[in-house]
Design a protein that fits this description.
The structure is a single chain. A 7-stranded parallel β-sheet has the order 3-2-1-4-5-6-7, with helices on both faces. The protein is 43% helix and 16% strand. It is of the alpha/beta class. The radius of gyration is 17 Å and the shape is globular. Helix 1 packs across helix 6, helix 3 runs parallel beside helix 4 and helix 4 packs parallel to helix 5. The chain contains 6 helices and 7 strands; from the N terminus they run βαβαβαβαβαβαβ. Strand 2, helix 2 and strand 3 form a beta-alpha-beta unit.
Length: 229
């Protein structure tokens, strides 16, 4: 595994950072993509520096950024074995909450940005018979009142299945990670009690990543035991 390469969007914090750390611990070289390049550079240095980790500024809503990021990874590391379309953010529930501008950016990032990651990475993943991951959510199976965020995650759930069927026969595996409440700054009003941690999600990520090539774990739904929704 030491020569394999993982690309992660939204790698500057939260689930993306935790999964990058877990993959690096498993021997992967990692490409860290996000808009906050200062945080990425510190993380890349921590994970081994230029020979083991790359910090790449990338706005996932800009096709040229994603295309060029994959080109940089291939030029530096020579291959791409796994890609994680993880960048995203939420919004308060209610169709009279948030601003239209916030909605616009969220829908673009959560749906269009994820689709651009798939588009940018698939050719290289075909070459290595690699693994594509997308961050979904329990909200991509159950819709809370007035949750446009949930609507975006339903789209990502569909995108994962669309990618799986499109890539069938190529050897590329596709996994949707769909956590419930995770102990991050994402939630304004989280459920009370022991929540999932980002390391819990990273553990599920590494589990799917480490299966034998003939095993494709297509979807992992995980909740804290206290979560009803």
């Amino acid at each position: 595994m030491s020569d394999r390469v993982l690309l992660v969007t939204g790698a500057s914090s939260g689930i993306g950072e935790a999964c990058a750390r877990a993959a690096a611990a498993a021997g992967y070289r990692v490409a860290l993509l996000a808009r906050r390049v200062e945080r990425l550079e510190a993380l890349a240095e921590e994970l081994g520096g230029d020979t083991r980790a790359l910090a790449i500024r990338c706005d996932v809503n800009v096709w040229e950024d994603q295309r060029d990021a994959v080109g940089t990874v291939l030029a530096r590391f020579g291959r791409l074995d796994a890609a994680f379309a993880n960048a995203g953010f939420g919004a308060r529930r209610g169709f009279l909450e948030e601003s239209p501008e916030h909605w616009h950016d969220m829908v673009l990032t959560n749906v269009y940005g994820a689709a651009l990651t798939v588009r940018a990475c698939v050719p290289a993943l075909r070459e290595t018979r690699g693994h594509l991951f997308l961050t979904g959510s329990v909200a991509g199976r159950k819709v809370g009142p007035g949750s446009l965020y949930a609507c975006t995650k339903w789209a990502v759930t569909a995108m994962a299945e669309a990618a799986r069927t499109d890539l069938n026969g190529t050897g590329v595996r596709v996994t949707l990670l769909a956590p419930g409440v995770v102990d991050t700054a994402f939630y304004d009003d989280p459920v009370q009690g022991a929540q999932l941690t980002v390391d819990d999600v990273a553990g599920a990520f590494v589990f799917a990543l480490s299966r034998p090539p003939h095993v494709d774990v297509n979807e992992i739904i995980m909740r804290p035991t206290i979560q009803e929704f």
